[in-house]
Hints:
560 residues, alpha/beta, 14 strands, 10% strand, binds arginine, aminoacyl-trna synthetase, EC 6.1.1.19, cytoplasm, arginine-tRNA ligase activity
Amino acid sequence: MERHIFALQLSHLLGESFSREWVYAQIEIPKQETHGDLAFPCFSLAKHFRKNPKDIAEEISLSIKHDVFDSVSATGGFVNVMLNKKFITSHTLKQLLSEPGEFGTHSFGEGKKVVLDLSAPNIAKPFSMGHLRSTVIGNAVANLAEKCGYEPVKINYIGDYGTQFGKLLAAYQRWGNSSLIKENPLHELKKIYVKFHQEAEKNPDLIEEGRQWFKRLEHQDEEAVELWTWFKDVSLIEFNKVYQLLGVAFDLTRGEAYYNDKMEATIELLKENKLLEHSEGAEVVRLDEEGLPPCLIRKSDGTTIYATRDLTAAIDRYQTYAFDESLYVVGHEQTLHFQQIVHVLKKLNFEWADRIQHIPFGMMLKDGKKMSTRKGKTILLEEVLKEAIDKARENIEEKNPQLENKDETARQVGVGAVIFHDLKHDRRNDVEFSLDEMLTFEGHTAPYLQYSYVRAKSLLEKGGFTSSSAAAEIDDPEAWSLIKTIRAYPEKIKMAYETYDPSTIAKHLLDLARSFNQYYAKTNIVNSHNKNEKLTLVYAFSLVLKDGLQVLGIEAPEKM
Length: 560
Ligand code: ARG
């Protein structure tokens, strides 16, 4: 609100050459609080007005006036505004406390649908750290979409098809042991898959065997389909354990194979539009004009591929959901693939092709290198989660052995640590895998946030606070930084959704907890004369923190 008022007054003063949106976007929050709460830099105006920024700032500052502003001043080319703390504080609390569930929500997404493609692990392979990234980032983006008014639809597009299954079937014929697979499916299947690649280096016949098995699968050969179905079923059981631990659910779980009998229609459509060309025995769509390599549609041996299935799935999703946005949360190594998909859909004249967006994220690296299943270089997510939960459990035994629900709390804390470790990084950056860091519970971590929440809750309990006793006004200069952080939350939600980057919220929650802990260190809350005002603030903090954690897909235990 104060930002809008500031922008409105500024743009009246500056005249029509500068749009209100531009002015609004220029407004900054000074790094040093003593400079003010909002600042407008005048440097880019200098040329237009042929005056120096300092003089412009002075002139403007004389004409900015409103009840929400305490003082307006000019320093070094900036117009600085100090807000009316009392007014802003009570406005913020009123907004938050009158309808806590509405705080941080927006209406700009109302009536719109966002389809999200997230997680998408590959069957017969362990759930990788890359798929963890897709799962937790996608889940948080879906939660953000919901807070902005959209209806999110989360789709788990399981990797259950492709030539690699031919290799797996061939490997199973040679070295498979069904009772071992029953005991520990993903581990055993990975083992024979890795072995296949090792042996194939010495014996090229294996590659041909893999190809033959894939052909059998494509032609619905009974034995091939039966094994494939079995691998799929056991994999899904394992994946579901991970989803349960993470607390992530999907609106639709549908694998690539679902599209097998629907791809011919896509190929027909490409033909009708004269887009399909032969190239070295294969069929492709040329994307020369777009400056991209051709999109492979059908291989020379007649088998279809990943891109063909994604094209078919995209069309099917539009027919089913008529989405306003369709987001694919997939690692950045697939950027080219999604560029090709969008361009082929555009060539087919689907006006909705532009609604598709790839939301790439960085890789999880081990010692600076990419992890690869084929070489057996992966880290098992389930083990990481188990270790994190064990560590949380140890902490509880040490610090609070009387706690009820120890198991559930340990799960919430351990899993929270792993999720937050991922989400606090800008999603585009690569992340070096470090179990130690994931298992650190202090500093910039979920357990630190969860602990701050628990501390707030216990203060409220000690002080006998209930939501109905909340104070309407707070006059406490010490609280200003915390109030401002609470107030910025809705804007951060919007920003995080617009950039599809949950790290905005993760970082904001750290700021929030830091402001709270500073406030808490400075003031004696329970024995102070204005105890109720202070507790109201603690309550406000707990509401926003819990909401923010929920957006990130992290639970907040009431005690720990
Ligand atoms: N299963 C694929 C992989 O692990 C990711 C699928 C992403 N989604 C999609 N619609 N292509 O590489």
